[in-house]
Amino acid sequence: MLYWQLFYTFLKIGTFTLGGGYAMIPLIQAEVVDRRRWIDEQEFLNMLALAQSAPGIIAVNTAIFIGYSIKGWRGLICTLLGAVLPSFCIILLIATVFTRFKDSPQVEAVMKGVRPAVVALIVAPLYRMARSAGMMPKKTEKTYTEWWRLLLLLIPVATALLVWLVDLSPVWIIMLTIVSAVIIVRLRQDRQRSDQ
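User: That's the sequence. What structure does it adopt?
Assistant: Structure tokens below.
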């Protein structure tokens, strides 16, 4: 029964999500974390970071990590098939008929109308991730000092600027981020030990 639920959940997300991988993230989070509670939010964010770092489409990578985390290899196959089948079938259908309708004003109007919704679907998980990472202040707790929060906020801005203006490969940024994170965590651990 759980295998079917995994497959059906990702099939539903893959069928009704417009805008590709990033637009699927809030729906995956709503289903897997909020509604079904298969994994907690922190584990989801960790999987999302891994999915972003791994080669391939972020939504498919996330589906793979979630399926494997919940039910091993069989769960992985269920979530992977659920996430990929709708896109495969829809793209196959579009490829056969799109050449006839690509210059249609109605099709162009639909595509322009969908764009703002796709942007909103991408921004929503980014905001939630920023709050979970401590970049945005929470009402109930004060996780980080202000300078640390500012540093966390500057990292994605600097990354976007480097990719856009300098044409730096995201691979180098990911490697730099991993090395920097390891160094920062080590420094914080050393500082905590010295304070004790």
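Residues 140-196 form one domain.
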